[in-house]
Amino acid sequence: MLMAFVFVSALSLGQTLHVKGKVMDVTNKGPVGYATVGAVGSTTAASTDDSGNFILKVEPNFSKIRISFVGYESQDVSIGRETYQELTVYLVPEEHTIETVNITAPKRTKYSNKNNPAVELVRKVIAHKDENRIASYEYAEYRQYEKVSLGLSNLSEKFKNRKIFKNYQFLFEKEDVDVGSSTRGYSLPAYIEEKLSQVYKRKKPNTTKQLILAEQRAQFDPKFVDSDGLSAYFNKLYQDIDIYESNIELVTNQFLSPIAGSSPTFYRFYITDTVKTETPFLVELSFFPRNKADLLFQGKLYITLDGKYAVKRAALSVADDINLNFVRDLDVKLDFERDSNNRYYLKASSLGLDFSLTDKGTGIRGNRTVTFDDFRTGIAQPDSVYAGPSVVKVVQKNDTTLNETYWAAHRPIALKPNEQNIYRNIDTLQLIPSFQRFMDISALVLSGYKQAGPIEIGPVNTFYSFNPVEGFRLRLGGRTTDRLSKRFYAEAYTAYGFKDEKWKYFLSGTYALNNKSVYTFPQHYLRASVMRDTKIPGQNLEFVQEDNFLLSFKRGENERYLYNDIYRMEYKREFENNFSYLIGLSKWRQQPAGILTYQMLDDGGNNNLFNELNTTELSVSLRYAPHEEFYQGKLYRTPIYNKYPIFYLNYVAGLKDVLGGEYDYHSFTLGADKRFYFSQLGYADVNIEGNYILGDHIPFPFLNIHRANQTYAYQLRSYNLMNFLEFVSDRSISTNVQYYMNGFLLNKIPLIKKLKWREVFSIKAIYGDLRNENNPAYTSNVFQFQENEYGEPITYGFDNRPYVEASIGLTNIFKFIRVDYVKRLNYLDQPDVPKHGIRVRVKFDF
Q: Mind telling me which Pfam families this protein's record contains (predicted)?
């Protein structure tokens, strides 16, 4: 689990606040009488009079008031710290409200886009978007400063005084929290990151170049936390907000901008005020989602009345009922400034997010602020400035000139005292033994490895498993850490099956050629390994070990295993542009186990059994993932998805008469992964892959045994209703589409939408072929396909149709469970194949 923390600055206690105001109907500007006005979390409340006026006294520890009335949507309004303040609140009528006969409500008109001046204004803003956004400049450049600060929030006195925090009292900060009591709560600032950059933009060709001049952040012990990955993850959550983009990516989702071309279809707009204290005059435009569960904003835009219809300011938040996990509050503020050309550029932006499992109690709160200075246009830089990667770090990590004196001189906004303390507090915190023990236990639970000096023992989920061939299986393993060496890493395990009474083992040694951990980007290493272990032919699991205990439970017959002896050498190189290659040489001996057989017909039609199969393989893998970001865990990289495709090419050559290899063949696999975003209709993850194998008389273990899944877990890359060893080919093409609608349909169904479930649809198809030279039905020079106990074949080539399976499912059940009903659409007459089934997957998502 990633640590994400938020800091909220402490507000000083003061006198009772006197809030005076007026409540009005947004559609007809009429007063709303007898509405309830109260401090959120308090029992203090007042009512409006016939003219919609109210006066409310609020204790200083409350920061919001809520206005509600029958037939209107409740509205929360933030209040300041001033002792006396006035405000005007516009309430939005609920859709399909039922008028009572006993209460006289203000006359309301049904909302419509037709002849609506607010919608007409929005359409003018949309029409002028291209000329108002920064991309309209031929050349632009500016200095950018960004800061992300995070920490635990809403902590009670009782929580702070727990025995476990006895040595950590220096970390806590007082804050005003809205928890329904008159006492002040605490925050625990725990992370901060700063970055200073020079940015250059060019219109033709469209190029953005960011030179990072200085950066610093609170550092955690790398043996527990990948600080670079943590920074990338935070930057993904707290992205730049461009109001002029049709879709705004935020907390790994896409929100429709209120000034997107289709926004009048999904939003309701109201003109709520005119600001004449600024030049040019501004129109205050309030907007609300038509469906409060959809991924949409609510808030206000301030539009210039100078014929340019530019956004001068924006305040965005989300509805309480939005189908968004773990986000208790979201607040965006954008401020634009007029330049010398009477056009507006973004001067400052802030994004605040409050994460929590529940609506009340302890949360995780964070804020990202970005300021833009020294904005210039029309300056054409040399082509060399725009060339190369879009983000370049000019600063070196060991640059001693980037001290606090440097930052104090270059920060446009000084850090608050408690923000300055975060850097020191994190260093101090990691010296406390109890905190080290906590991180050690957390690493064990989340990664499966237990620290033991210079080695790690694990992963623990593989210590016990079972299968039909080995029976009860015990395994113990571990690996070295950089405490032993930064350049050399070793990994090993040993396992024993109590049914087959055989020992299995694995041993590898890796030498890093760039003096970095082999698990950090960019990888550059040499590795040698030897393994003797079992494997199901064609099974390819995702992010898990095959002897994981939970995957021991399988459907159908699964007694066809291999004993593998593999000796392998490999060289891997990654580059900063996310291109990588891997070259490997392996010697592989496989022996059939369980009821798997290797048999070949002789000229007399008799079966000859083979006890082993030997091959020597040379492999080359190429991968290109532009702009890829990820969080590096103990074992795997967790990708942070973006809109860019990922391409890969794998080549494997069987080398006959080299180190005992018995066959010549050449296998090529070319594929691509891409995420497609469809705004309010969700997104789709698409994979396309093709495989071609050259060679004659190749036994089926060296052909393409298509990925099957006989567990009850839904696997994204495997065919969940295909049996092990069911299909083989020497040329194939496949597609895999996972379409997530993010609740777009379910959000429209009353009651169901309160569950915040989301729809997911998938279809997987593969079409292949098997040349006669490799098909035992046409030649006796290859191994026979597998048969069941009744002599019926259970391994096949494809005929003139593809294998297809589809599923429909629900995600976000209890916020992390996905359940799919999977249907197999053809090849239903083959023995022991399932026609449908239920599969489950754990999926955490915002």
A: CarbopepD_reg_2, DUF5686
